[in-house]
Design a protein that fits this description.
Blueprint (H helix, E strand, L loop, with lengths): L1 E7 L19 E2 L17 H7 L8 E8 L5 E16 L5 E7 L4 E2 L12 E7 L3 E9 L3 E12 L14 E7 L5 E2 L3 E4 L3 E5 L2 E11 L11 E3 L14 E2 L27 E7 L2 E15 L3 E5 L5 E6 L4 E8 L3 E10 L7 E12 L6 E7 L4 E5 L3 E4 L3 E6 L2 E11 L11 E3 L8 H29 L6
Parallel strand pairs: 12-15, 26-29
Antiparallel strand pairs: 1-3, 2-6, 3-4, 4-5, 4-14, 6-7, 7-8, 8-9, 9-10, 9-11, 12-14, 13-14, 16-19, 17-18, 18-19, 18-28, 20-21, 21-22, 22-23, 23-24, 23-25, 26-28, 27-28
Length: about 450
């Protein structure tokens, strides 16, 4: 048995619309929605305005609270969270569009399970026209943690997926990166977290969850996520130029020109661990260029940016969250995994701009056709000069002082680096020498011709 509640997490908005409904029956939820947005992206002229409103308290949102009880009517699994989904799908015209899927006004919890020492706990919800989401939790003698997240969306829902080429339910499964939590502790993460897989970005914020609740009492001690961990540096917004921007829901060719930033971003140092060992190292300065007629320049601030992600033998993902307003995901893969000589490369980059207060998506862009930053497996890749990653027509990422190793990190240090061609100054030496020799030869030839002319001028014809 479970109960579902909707509770406001922000002060009343100046403009709000509450959708009321009769009290829900057991096993269902009737959440209310305030300031609900359509699945399409905002018009271009509103993008910069929305970025500013994210800090003004203009928006209001509601959380869903789930209290799963066992046969004795005792709480065994408790969760309160906010989430939405950003999905890229193909249309009948072979274009790709982005759409936002939110919890609907009717949610059920069929299949939720308390779990025990031999069975995983399961939190499952169903909503809208055939959509569902679930997460299972496993435990040890001392800890519990999220294991897998399963999300099914139904493209037959024409309100969310108009003109979808593929029809029917589509299911994706992702590995949860939640760190182990002590039993009797409640896991809390107010900052935004996200998972990317198969054209779907799952976005979560204001999460409170405790699995395997003992004696029906929610723990008072909190275990915080990495993004909530305070830092010594003050929280400041990213550097933004005072210009208008635009977002798009259809992927288009890359821009032909990009404005130069006023200043380069600071370089940040990021790392991921698998157990007690470092499995990914990254040093990079990042700058976003969101543009249409005029640019919006955003310097990613390392002091307010947290790193998360997952390591694997053939795939690694680095997710950066800058102050709960900008999410950037880098996916690296190993090519020719069965070959004797293997290389890794950057395959996909996803960027999401969020409203800072309620996590609503302002703009999203994804490119999964990269083949950059390649180096031999076991080494690192370095490029000190500025590089540009073209995400789509309206979004670029400029990188500075890049040094990355997503696989086979040893002793918490970068391995020998393979440098990019932009950094390779050795090619300049023969060019300079050749140019100097060519210049010297040209001077000798010109001097010879002038000398010959002068020598002829001193003789008379007999």
């Amino acid at each position: 048995m479970a109960r579902f509640l909707s509770r406001p997490l922000a002060s009343p908005a100046r403009h709000s619309l509450t959708l009321g409904a009769p009290a829900p029956a057991a096993g269902s939820m009737e959440p209310r929605c305030c300031c609900c947005f359509s699945s399409s992206s905002p018009p271009p002229r509103l993008l910069f305005l929305l970025l500013l409103l994210g800090t003004s308290g203009f928006f209001q949102s509601y959380a869903v609270e789930v209290d799963v009880k066992d046969a004795s009517n005792t709480t065994c699994l408790y969760a309160k969270w906010m989430m939405r989904f950003l999905i890229k799908y193909e249309t009948n015209s072979s274009d790709y569009k982005n759409t936002t899927l939110n919890l609907s006004s009717s949610v059920t919890h069929n299949g939720s399970v308390c779990g025990n020492d031999t069975q995983a706990a399961l939190l499952a919800v169903q909503f809208g026209e055939g959509h569902s989401w679930s997460i299972n939790f496993t435990k040890t003698n001392e800890t519990y943690q999220g294991d897998f997240i399963t999300f099914t969306y139904n493209t037959n829902d024409t309100a969310v997926f108009p003109d979808a080429k593929r029809k029917g339910p589509i299911t994706i499964v992702v590995k949860d990166t939640m760190r182990p939590v002590q039993l009797n502790n409640v896991f809390v993460c107010h900052n935004t977290d996200f998972f990317e897989a198969e054209n779907v970005t799952q976005i979560f914020w204001n999460v409170t969850v405790q699995a395997f609740v003992q004696n029906g009492t929610i723990g008072k001690k909190e275990s915080r996520c990495r993004a909530d961990t305070p830092t010594s540096a003050p929280t400041v917004p990213p550097t933004i130029a005072n210009v208008t921007t635009a977002s798009t829901t259809t992927l288009s060719p890359a821009p032909t020109t990009a404005p130069k930033p006023v200043e380069n971003p600071d370089t940040g140092n990021y790392s991921l661990k698998s157990g007690n060992k470092t499995c990914l190292l990254a040093t990079v300065g990042l700058q976003l260029n969101v543009s249409q007629d005029k640019p919006l320049l955003i310097n990613i601030n390392p002091k307010t940016t947290s790193a998360d992600g997952a390591c694997g033998n053939t795939t690694a993902t680095l997710k950066l969250n800058d102050g709960n307003s900008t999410l950037i995901g880098f996916t690296f893969v190993v090519k020719n995994a069965s070959a004797s000589v293997q290389k890794f490369y950057l395959k996909e980059v996803n960027v999401t701009l969020l409203n800072r207060l309620n996590g609503s998506v302002i703009s999203n862009a994804d490119n999964n056709n990269f083949s950059k930053w390649d180096a031999f497996l076991g080494s690192s890749y370095m490029c000190r000069k500025e590089q540009t990653l073209e995400i789509n027509e309206y979004l670029q990422i400029h990188t500075f002082n890049l040094w990355i190793q997503p696989f086979l990190v040893k002793a918490n240090k970068f391995s020998t680096a393979q440098e990019c061609s932009l950094d390779d100054d050795s090619i300049l030496i023969p060019i300079v020498v050749g140019a100097a020799l060519a210049g010297l030869i040209a001077i000798i030839v010109v001097a010879y011709i002038i000398g010959r002319r002068k020598s002829y001028a001193g003789y008379q014809t007999l």
